[in-house]
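Subject: for your reference before the review

Hello V.,

The reviewers asked for a structural picture of the protein, and I figured it would be easier to keep everything in one thread rather than splitting it across files. Below is the amino acid sequence we used in the manuscript, unchanged from the supplementary table.
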Amino acid sequence: AAAAVIFVAVLTSLRLLDNKQGVVLADVLARIEQTRAFMYRMEMTMTGSMTSAMPSETQEIQSTMIISNEYGMKWEMNIPDPNTGKIITTQIYILPDQKMMLSLMPEQKKYMRRELDDDLLARMRKENNDPRITIKRILDCEYVELGRSVVDGKEVEGFETTDPKFSTGMAEDIKVKLWVDVETWLPVLWEMDMKMNERMSM
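And here is what came back from the structure prediction:
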């Protein structure tokens, strides 16, 4: 089972970095930190269960995240109902200026409002796969360069870590690959395989 994230970024006007010597991961972080807004799509497969008392199952989740420095975050998740197979959509808005999270569930005609403090806002950025946080975590781990490949017709350069430190204690085994466009030095694809315990993997 694997999770894959595809990134698209909206940039301020920046001079393209010279990539003749290969992509430098720290400079990728510097570049994406100068973007005003970006989005990514994620496909995630979770298998197993959190405890032995719960039945083992496989869950497919598709989501789209839009992150703006000015306006906050919008996260839309599509999860199939295990009983009916019908897709259930949840939209989550995180509004830093108002320190508020708003969740909309159109099929159930429900919504939920929650106030956020600074610590919770920071934690949600980390948990919502903000690529800036992800790259910082890779840089803080032992990682290897994978050389060049092609993803969706783009020439990319890869980086991989299996350092347990990346998961901050959430996983027993982990493998993370990040593929970066060699022309723009922006993330294109992030792949992650993670085993939480004997019963559950993602």
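For the response letter, the relevant points are probably these. Confidence is low (pLDDT under 50) at residues 9-19. The CA atoms of residues 76 and 91 lie 4 Å apart.

Happy to draft the paragraph if you're swamped.

O.
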